[in-house]
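Quick illustration, no need to memorize.
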Amino acid sequence: MWPFRKKRYSLIDSGLLQGMTDCHSHILPGVDDGIQTEEDSLLALESLVELGIRELWLTPHIMEDIPNSPAALKQRFADLQQLVLAQSDEDSSVRISDLRLNLAAEHMLDGLFASRLDNDDLLPIFDGHCLLVETSYFNPPLRFWEMLEDIRRKGYTPLLAHPERYYYMHTPDYHHLLDIGVLFQLNILSLTGAYGETARQKSLRLLRGGCYSYVGSDLHNLDDFLGYANERCLLKDDVEALTQLLSGSDI
């Protein structure tokens, strides 16, 4: 007799993406390591609309290696909005203007972050009350804990992007971050193994522990995203935990 195997679901066939707010993506074209062309950006937006995502935050990198400025990103965002409106005026079965678009940034906690924070050279998320931040995957930055406190003193709540992907973080680190008021953002593809088994296992533990506050695709490449989103890898309990998170993370 074959051993019993539990049914597994994909992100797409589970319906989890229907009505989702995606708070982390790299779809603003030609500004970082994400989507590069306007055509590919529009194609990605069309695909997200078809999947049922209702609101999207474009969060390009601001970091030493990708020195975007908020002013330049705002102009690029305005250009994209004009393209979206033009596309929606055409005869199309998919109206990407129905997708609510917002602009923020993913800020690297690097050697230039302190001056950016001091000068308010930032693009906060969620009407300005959170700051989406990240670190190196392998080592914490110098003054990591102090920078988080500096963010709070400036009136922002730190929202840590994809905490499951940081190899140097372990259970006590996650507990301490939550205790000091840092919010966690799940990369939804982490649950599929897109970033490796370690990140997948961490994401499942954090999800089942109720540690996340928000969810993002971190979409850089549409084909990669769709490929992993179709992987049947989620158990029923995982779907239920993610459903609860998504229902409680409306912005």
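DSSP finds eight helices and nine strands in the chain.
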